[in-house]
Amino acid sequence: MRFLLILDRVENPASANALLGCRLAAQLLAQGHCVHLLELWDGLHTPPAPPEGTVQHTLAFADERLMNTALENGVRGGTPVPLRLLRLAAHPTAVAAAFRQLVLHAPRRTVDSRRAVERLDAQFHFDAVCAVCAPYRTAFALEGARIGGKKLLWQLDPYASNRDYTAPGGFAREGQLLEAVDGTFVTPQAMPDYTGGPLSPWRSKVHLLGFPVLLPAPETPAHTGTRCVFCGSLYPTVREPDFALELFCRLNAHDLTLTMAGGGWQRFAAQAERTATVLKDRFVRPGPLPPADAAALETGADILLSLGNAYDNQMPSKLFSYFGTGKPVLHLAVSETDPTLPYLARYPLGLVLQKKDGVTPEVLDRLSRWLAEVAGQRLPYEQVAALYPEFTPQQVARDFLAALS
């Protein structure tokens, strides 16, 4: 079969969703299929080389990058609106992008992506075109595209039921989108929307698909002390560092280093400063990192730290890549209905601490004893893959293809 996958790197050049799309592409190639990638990028950070054997097409959106920077992605707080508009006015292409998006409701990313999909389909005659989202610009581009093959969505994040932003049009708009496509792939925690929920009319179009992230990991280089590593972004009310920082400050183990890489610390600067005062050089914040650098940090870790989401309809793919390493995983849950808990219960080297239990002497003793018990332990990849086969790239590709038959 011949596939086109649409990947969006405009807001995030190191997009995890784009990485997962490339991983699926590599597996489809390995199983004998032809794969093209249409990659949308920000005109500044060139997309990485695609998997060997794929055909890569690119579309640059420097105008939208400039618009997003000037308007701070529309996030409340931060720079006053008049100053944002003044910054926007300094870039004519960004002004045009804002006018198309906010006034005409026809973002160039959606319009030009639709045209590119139609042009590529006319040339290569794809059996299926899949938009890897979020963001959802590519989904809306595919919605209106006139093509001969199937239209598919891979919804790695929810649209209407995403609780940390208000999706334009809500469930009614998502229903229109689902009506226009042939199928959509979701992870299990999103299923309530389709089974008795507002998207139930489209249940027949929905297929479960895991994250293709369970991979063998390199050996950990020799080092002294214990390294605990978190790689990921922080979001107010969704994924916050407070519980982790308080826990490690109170533990204050002299041989334990806490490294938290990624963005989103602007809203948590005070907490980070207090932690640095206590832990000093045992608290490291390298900021956002390219995927290769983040992977190197995780390779050098002894303990991998997972921060639970506050919402139960979002499940971070990062946790399953942690499992693939076979290393001990410390998960800090903030919700009793955290969808990752059943998976963590099956992981032999996992420890779950609940924020609701607080940072008590009992909790600290439990953490300290666990750290001592799992020191130097690591599960064989084959054992982990047998526990979570649906998250191995090979099985994800098979499940993707089975849904098309």
Describe this structure in words.
With 405 residues, the protein is α/β, with parallel strands linked by helices. Helix content is 39%, strand content 18%. A 7-stranded parallel sheet has the order 3-2-1-4-5-6-7, sandwiched between helices. The protein has a 6-stranded parallel sheet with strand order 10-9-8-11-12-13, sandwiched between helices. The longest helix has 17 residues, at 108-124. The chain is globular and about 60 Å long.
Structure described in brief:
The chain is an alpha/beta fold and 405 residues long.
Write the SSE topology.
Layout: E1 2-8, H1 16-30, E2 34-41, E3 55-60, H2 62-71, H3 81-89, H4 92-103, H5 108-124, E4 128-133, H6 137-144, E5 150-155, H7 170-180, E6 183-186, E7 206-208, E8 226-231, H8 242-251, E9 256-261, H9 269-279, E10 283-287, H10 291-299, E11 303-307, H11 318-325, E12 329-333, H12 341-345, E13 350-354, H13 361-374, H14 381-387, H15 393-402
Parallel strand pairs: 1-2, 1-4, 2-3, 4-5, 5-6, 6-7, 8-9, 8-11, 9-10, 11-12, 12-13
Helix pairs in contact: 1-15, 2-3, 2-4, 5-6, 8-9
